[in-house]
Design brief:
The chain is an alpha/beta fold. Helix content is 40%, strand content 15%. It is built from five helices and four strands; from the N terminus they run βαβαβαβαα.
């Protein structure tokens, strides 16, 4: 989660990969901004997050299932200091991105792998959109 640490100069970025569409997603984003972080919100579907405009955050549209694409995007963003998601479906992605970039983020665990496997299984069972 977003720690009590404040951004030293307001130029440090905190990354959110997708989020809950209400409640904790917006709350965590707001807390990061209050602590002086620039928020980078990554999503494949910005229409799911009407609160972004109220929080004055422009989403970065990227395939949030593609860890390499996320890392390429973040390499262009400057001083990224942390990665997270409030969505259980993207905790594993956030953990992989944080690990690749040697940043603080969710701990990778067997639990993350189980959640990722369940999400992929659900997605496959629904078939093509």
């Amino acid at each position: 989660m977003v720690s009590a640490t404040r951004s030293r100069d307001g130029n440090e970025s905190f990354v959110f990969i997708e989020s809950n569409t209400t409640g904790t997603g917006q709350l965590c984003l707001r807390r990061a901004r209050e602590r002086g972080f620039r928020v980078l919100f990554l999503t494949a579907r910005p229409d799911l997050y009407p609160y972004l405009s109220a929080e004055m955050v422009a989403p970065h549209v990227v395939d949030t299932g593609d860890v390499a694409a996320i890392c390429r995007l973040l390499a262009q963003q400057g001083d990224v200091v942390g990665v997270m998601s409030t969505s259980e479906y993207f905790i594993e992605t956030a953990a992989q991105v944080a690990a690749r970039l040697s940043l603080p983020g969710p701990e990778r665990s067997r639990g993350c792998a189980i959640v990722a496997t369940r999400a992929a299984s659900r997605s496959r069972s629904r078939g093509p959109a």
